[in-house]
Amino acid sequence: MDHEGEPPMDRTDGDTVLGAGGLLLRRWRPEDLPALLRAYDDPAMRRWLAVQVRGPDGAAAWLEAQRTGWETGTRYGFAVTEAGQADGEGGGPGGELLGNIALKRPDPLNGTAEVGYWTAAPARGRGVASRALAALTDWAFTRFAVSGLTRLELLHQVDNAASCRVAEKGGYALARVIPALPPDYPLEGHVHARRAPVAALNRSAGRRAAGAGTDGGRATGR
Questions:
Q1: Dihedral over Cα of 203, 207, 210, 216: its sign
Q2: Alpha-carbon Rg for the chain in angstroms
């Protein structure tokens, strides 16, 4: 998908973000399948994530969904690894797979998008989620400023205290509480939100003034 006027993600292959604190965020690749299966073989992942990955076919379908998301410009999923590590099995450049973080933008005309993430069990307690969230947030507001992105939301179930701390640490204030939607969401949810920096908001306002008449769609749900 062509993002005219938007800066490239970096000066190399266009699919990598060097994150804060020594992280490497890059596109998911087919060779990540074994590491993806290992990450989902974890009780915490089964508890907190609505979308589950089961077996090689399920992992292959999940990886294909990440590729399709990039092509359509509706979902930008990144494998999170450590920058500077040698290549590792199933991890690609950057070595061990630490987690996943994604920007979900099903309606590119909407000024609001959603971020989601998970951290692999061996990487928890190392600040991976917070550092990856900071890197993705900066990238998203920079890359999509001219196309009108002004707000990012992060959703989690109300009893997920760890995600609540990550959101608050990343500058995502609690915006509202949404009702439970059983059976998939048996408890209420928190919606945290962060506004774009002033410079990005000014660029977005300039774009709207030049092309008035577009109206964003409904914000993404859970």
A1: negative
A2: 17
